[in-house]
Amino acid sequence: MIQFFQDLGATSLFFVRVVRTFFTTQGNFQPILGQVAFVSLRSLSTVLFAGLFVGAILVLQLDLILAKYDAELFLGGLNTSTVIREVGPLIISFLLAGKIGAFTAAELGTMRVTEQIDAIECLGTNPIQYLVVPRLFGIMISSLILLFIGLLVSIGGAMAVAWFACGITIPEFTSSIPKFVSIGTFVAALFKALVYGTIVATVSCHRGFIATGGARGVGHAVTQASIFTNLYILFANFGLSHMLTLINTLTEGLMGGSP
Fold first, then answer.
1. d(Cα 106, Cα 108) in Å, to the nearest integer?
2. Residue spans of alpha helices (H) in 69-132
3. Mapping DSSP to helix (H, G, I), strand (E, B) and coil, where does residue 250 land?
4. Is residue 143 within 8 Å of residue 137, measured between CB atoms?
5. Which residues of 219-252 are buried (b: 16+ CB within 10 A; e: fewer)?
6. Cβ atoms of residues 72 and 66 within 8 Å
7. What is the pLDDT of residues 56-102, one digit of tens each?
8. Torsion-angle region of residue 213: left (phi > 0), alpha (psi -120 to 50) or beta?
9. pTM score, two decimals?
10. Where in the chain are the domains?
11. What is the DSSP letter of 124?
12. d(CA 48, CA 151)
């Protein structure tokens, strides 16, 4: 536990350092855009494939339950709400952690153990600005873009499967969505995706940046990045779910109590 909180504190301080560097330096816009394009294109096929099957699987599972109570009319709303609230942000973050997070940790770790980062510092360049800022903010922004694409594909795949496998037409599927999904639901999903993307970016960049011990050290950094990223995402998901539920309850109370 002590080691866990030490790692959490070191990662948090590293994130503060990167953010401070971003706001105190210039010329970061183009490198960040390049990383956004790189991360989004590299992860797009995986997100499309995963989103399609996640939506299809949820429809089949929910239909089995709702059919017992003759409540299949709510299939579209429940499926869409589940995907947007929880499954979508989590799936996207885990995919980023497994593909982009591991790649980033390995890339920066290799630069560290081969003394490329030390060479950059000797040339008078800030390695945080040159190497970390574009990668960290690129992953954060890409998580939002990939979430939006993944949600569209997942909901579209769910509609298709509901139509062909469950006999639910598209108008029937979409009729219950407004009852379960609101603008606040999308905002909460985007906020979760941003938090999870920040965790993936910060942990992977930090682990790679401090890697030591040659090739074995790079492998250890990648493993640690994957483990701690998933742990932090699960803890963050638990905390955010409770926080957003509390905010939703308070908002409904205030709206209900207003004249």
1. 6
2. 75-82, 88-96, 102-113, 116-122, 127
3. helix
4. no
5. ebbbebbbebbbebbeebbeebeeebeeeeeeee
6. yes
7. 888 988 888 888 888 888 888 999 988 998 888 888 898 888 889 99
8. left
9. 0.90
10. 29-245
11. T
12. 9
Q: Angle of helix 133-166 relative to helix 75-82, nearest 10 degrees?
A: 160
The pair of three-digit structure tokens given for residue 29, joined into one six-digit string? 């816009």
Q: What type of residue sits at position 148?
A: F
Of the two residues 259 and 104, the one the predictor is more confident about is 104
pLDDT beyond 50 at 257: no
What's the CA gap between 20 and 133, in Å, rounded?
10
Q: What are phi and psi of 31, to 5 degrees?
A: -60, -35
The amino acid occupying position 73 is L
For residue 65, which amino acid is it? I
Q: What's the token pair of residue 3?
A: 């080691």
Residue-wise pLDDT tens digits, 117-164: 999 989 888 999 999 999 999 999 999 999 999 999 999 989 999 898
Distance of alpha carbon 240 from alpha carbon 149, whole angstroms: 22
Q: Does 251 score more than 80 pLDDT?
A: no
